[in-house]
Amino acid sequence: MISRPIDATRLSVLAAGVAGVLLAGTAGAFAQAQQQAPQGWFKVCSKQEDVDICNVQNIVTAGTGQLVTGVSLIELKGKVNRKVFQVSVPSGRLVPPGIGLQVDGGKAQKLDYVICFPERCVAEAQLSDQLVSSFKKGSELTLTSVNFQNQPNPIKISLQGFTGAYDGEPIKQADIEERQKKLQEFVKKNNDDFSKKLKEEQDKAKAAGN
Question: Where do the H-state alpha helices sit in the chain?
Answer without folding.
Answer: 8-23, 31-36, 129-137, 162-167, 173-209
